[in-house]
Write a structure and sequence with these properties.
Layout (H helix, E strand, L loop, with lengths): L2 H16 L24 E3 L2 E6 L3 E7 L6 E10 L13 E7 L5 E7 L2 E7 L2 E14 L2 E10 L8 E3 L1 H4 L3 E3 L4
Parallel strand pairs: 1-11, 3-10, 4-9
Antiparallel strand pairs: 2-3, 2-8, 4-5, 4-10, 5-6, 7-8, 8-9
InterPro entries: Asp_endopeptidase, Peptidase_aspartic_dom_sf
Keywords: Signal
């Protein structure tokens, strides 16, 4: 863009801002610098969305970029042939029920993939991780989800960065 055109654009931007029109939307050479890093191929997700678990259970979820991993409300967690320590149960079958915000319950059984140490406002706790397929808006991924009693929490499903994996952009305006 020539120097004269840039000066004209700047002058027009100042005038348009004075009357309340957002000049960056009229940019002549692409988006504003603050938006250049956003991949236009990413889907936009809001902080509150509905997800499908294993294609059968619908959950209202909180999408949280501050959470490293995904967590689901699970009760009646029973490990088959349980060992004395949680770490010794990795690889074993675990039976559990997931419960959504409406109180609907689904019984699932998976192999324990790992145990996670989680620090939160209640202190430190250990949770079993199991692979679950989570779907939203055409994106279906299997991620390790930690099992936790979330009965006192508003959202029975917390979506962490492990599911997002640089494929979505969170729109905080909604």
């Amino acid at each position: 863009m020539s120097l004269l055109l840039k000066k004209l654009y700047l002058l027009c931007s100042i005038l348009l801002l004075a009357v309340g029109i957002n000049a960056p939307s009229l940019a002549l050479d692409g988006p504003p610098a603050a938006l250049e890093h956003i991949d236009p191929h990413k889907k936009v997700i809001t902080p509150e969305e509905y997800f499908w678990i294993e294609g059968q259970a619908r959950f209202s979820a909180r999408v949280d970029s501050g959470a490293k991993s995904t967590s689901i409300h699970a009760i009646e967690i029973e490990v088959e042939d349980a060992a004395d320590t949680m770490m010794d149960n990795v690889g074993k079958q675990v039976n559990f029920n997931i419960v959504n915000e409406e109180g609907k319950t689904w019984s699932l059984s998976r192999r324990i993939s790992s145990v996670t140490k989680v620090r939160n406002s209640q202190g430190v706790e250990y949770r079993y991780n199991v692979p679950l397929r989570l779907g939203w808006n055409g994106i279906n991924k299997t991620v390790d989800v930690n099992l936790r009693d979330r009965s006192k929490m508003t959202y029975k499903l917390l979506i962490g960065r492990d599911w997002m994996n640089r494929e979505v952009v969170i729109d905080l305006e909604h």
